[in-house]
């Protein structure tokens, strides 16, 4: 049996968004010095899950991220890092299993 996987890279706002073959994606927003952020990145890397990382210390990143979070109904006055966007859903300091389940269940029909 031959399994072929491919990735489509879309360039938008000078950042690459890496989509899996089923259209799933993960964006990790955090800080280089944040232990929770780095832990999430290590888990994703260990499991060979492609993701985009954005440093929120850059206002060009944090301002649009906060706007997207508010549009999703998330209070941006205080939240824990990392903020992880999975297939358009936002999580603040999520458990790794939540991220993975959301990532793989993008096209699942209940």
Structural features, described:
- The chain is of the alpha+beta class.
- The protein is 31% helix and 25% strand.
- It contains 3 helices and 6 strands.
- The strands form 2 sheets. Strands 4-3-5-6 form a 4-stranded mixed beta sheet, sandwiched between helices. Strands 1-2 form a two-stranded antiparallel sheet.
- The termini are far apart.
- 14% of the residues are buried.
Q: What are the key terms here?
A:
single chain, 110 residues, alpha+beta, four-stranded mixed β-sheet, two-stranded antiparallel sheet, 3 helices, 31% helix, globular, disordered N terminus
The dominant shape is globular
Largest sheet: 4 strands, mixed
* Radius of gyration, CA atoms, in whole angstroms: 14 Å
State the helix count. 3
Quaternary structure type? single chain
* Overall helicity: 25-40%
Q: Could you name the ranges where pLDDT drops below 50 across 5 or more consecutive residues? A: 1-14
SSE inventory with pairings:
Layout: E1 8-12, E2 15-19, E3 26-30, H1 35-46, E4 52-55, H2 59-71, E5 83-86, E6 89-92, H3 96-104
Parallel strand pairs: 3-4
Antiparallel strand pairs: 1-2, 3-5, 5-6
What's a quick, concise take on this entry?
The chain is an alpha+beta fold and 110 residues long.
């Amino acid at each position: 049996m031959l399994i072929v996987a491919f990735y489509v890279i879309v360039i938008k706002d000078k950042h690459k968004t890496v989509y899996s073959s089923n259209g799933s994606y993960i964006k990790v927003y955090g800080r280089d010095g944040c232990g929770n952020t780095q832990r999430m990145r290590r888990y994703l890397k260990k499991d060979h899950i492609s993701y985009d990382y954005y440093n929120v210390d850059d206002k060009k990143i944090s301002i649009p991220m906060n706007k997207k979070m508010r549009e999703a109904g998330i209070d941006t006055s205080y939240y824990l890092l990392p903020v992880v966007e999975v297939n358009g859903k936002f999580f603040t300091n999520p458990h790794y299993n939540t991220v993975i389940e959301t990532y793989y269940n993008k096209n699942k029909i209940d």
